[in-house]
Amino acid sequence: MNIIFTRPLIDAEDLMMSFFSSGHKVIHMPTLKITSAEMEPIDVKNYDGLIFTSANAVRFLKVKNDQKDIKCFCVGNLTERSLRLKGFNNTVAASGTVNALKNIIINHEKNIKNLAYLCGDVISYDLDKELLREGFKVRKIINYKSTKIIELNKESMDLIKKYIANIAFIYSRRSAESFDEIVRKYSLSELMTHCKVMCISKKIEEYLKSRGWNKTELFNPGEELIKIDQIKNG
């Protein structure tokens, strides 16, 4: 199958290689540029735990000390793995959704109440506000920024025309906006007629449907290969 990947290469390389190994054709069409927000290093001793809803928040994390045993709440396995590679050893991962992460935090040890939430400048779910309502003390720290990419280079354009996409994976609302803009800007709608757009959340799916994308489906991060096989054999 022909698959469009919209994540930055650093986040998608391993999964892309898995698809290549399974015989699929992968077209890399990044829709966001991720950069550091130049955060001030935080003193983790001031918190009971840290929250990460993206591996990008881990990538740009800066701390004042080398305390790696602080409790870290991660949205999914990729984020948790990124923290482990940095030496943090007290981690717990949700199933890939922010709502699942919120429930894990709420139902965790009662002595964890003072949290730092590391995230990007654009988020689709106000996790900090939700936790504040639940009685937690939360400091939201923006440590990375995302900029939409709406340009398509010639190599990607040629690949999209040669290998008509069967599936496209979208991982954020902002990425969905860029994807839609690129398709319209380069008049690719006709080529995308049979493309199923896989959305990581209901909000993303609702946005794409409002823009005229009728072939959408939800997926859980980490289950991309399973979804591909289901669609292929369905």
Structure description:
By secondary structure, the protein is of the alpha/beta class. The chain folds into 2 domains: 2-31 and 148-233, Rossmann fold; 41-145, Rossmann fold, CATH 3.40.50.10090. 36% of the residues lie in helices and 23% in strands. The protein is built from 9 helices and 11 strands. The strands form 2 sheets. Strands 3-8-7-4-5-6 form a 6-stranded mixed β-sheet, with helices on both faces. Strands 2-1-9-10-11 form a 5-stranded parallel β-sheet, sandwiched between helices. Helix 7 packs parallel to helix 8 (202-210). The longest helix has 13 residues, at 9-21.
- Report the structural category: alpha/beta
Uncertain stretches: none
Q: Give the CA-CA distance, first to last residue.
A: 13 Å
Assign an overall shape.
elongated
Proportion of β residues?
A: 15-25%
Q: Residue-averaged pLDDT, rounded?
A: 91
Q: Measured on Cα atoms, how large is the radius of gyration?
A: 19 Å
| CATH architecture level-2 label of the largest domain | 3-Layer(aba) Sandwich
Give the helix proportion (percent range): 25-40%
- Arrangement of strands in the largest sheet: 3-8-7-4-5-6
Main sheet makeup? 6 strands, mixed
What's the helix-strand series? EHEEEHEHEHEHEHEHEHEH
| Discrete helix count | 9
Q: Tell me how many strands there are.
A: 11
State the CATH topology of the largest domain.
Rossmann fold
CATH class of the largest domain: Alpha Beta
Number of structural domains = 2
